[in-house]
Design a protein that fits this description.
With about 110 residues, the protein is of the alpha/beta class. The chain is built from four helices and four strands, in the order H-H-E-E-E-H-E-H.
C-alpha cells in the first residue's frame, strides 16, 4: 500500500511511477502478460545476470519481500528471473537497492 510514510520516504518519486496495488499478485501478473511486456522476477541466485538479460523492451520488475524473496507462485508466473551478481560474503541487497540497480540497468540498455 502506498501510505503517507511511503510518499515521504520516496522524496516525491512515488508521484512519478505507476504503482499497482492488487490483492493477488500472481493473478494480476497473469492478466497483464502480453507479447510486448515481459515480467522479470528479481531473485538472489540461480538466474541470468542482469547485464545478460534483455531489459530494453516493455517490462515489469517484480521484487519479493526482504529475507523471503518471491513467493513460489509469483516466481512461476514471471517470464524470466534475473539476478544481480554478488561477490564476497554479501548474499543479497536491500530491496530498494536491488530495484535501483535493475532500473538503472534497464535504462542503460535503452541508451
Amino acid at each position: 500500500m502506498v501510505t503517507s510514510a511511503v510518499c515521504r520516504a520516496s522524496a516525491g518519486a512515488v508521484e512519478h511511477l505507476a504503482i499497482a496495488v492488487v490483492p493477488n499478485l500472481a493473478r494480476y501478473l497473469g492478466e497483464v502478460k502480453r507479447g510486448d511486456l515481459w515480467i522479470y522476477g528479481a531473485v538472489g541466485n540461480g538466474a541470468k545476470p542482469m547485464w545478460e538479460t534483455d531489459l530494453s523492451g516493455g517490462l515489469a520488475l517484480v521484487f519479493g519481500a526482504e529475507g523471503k524473496g518471491l513467493r513460489p507462485l509469483v516466481r512461476r508466473t514471471c517470464d524470466e528471473v534475473v539476478s544481480i551478481p554478488m561477490e564476497g560474503s554479501v548474499e543479497s541487497l536491500n530491496v530498494s537497492v536491488a530495484a535501483a540497480l535493475l532500473l538503472y540497468e534497464a535504462r542503460r540498455q535503452r541508451g
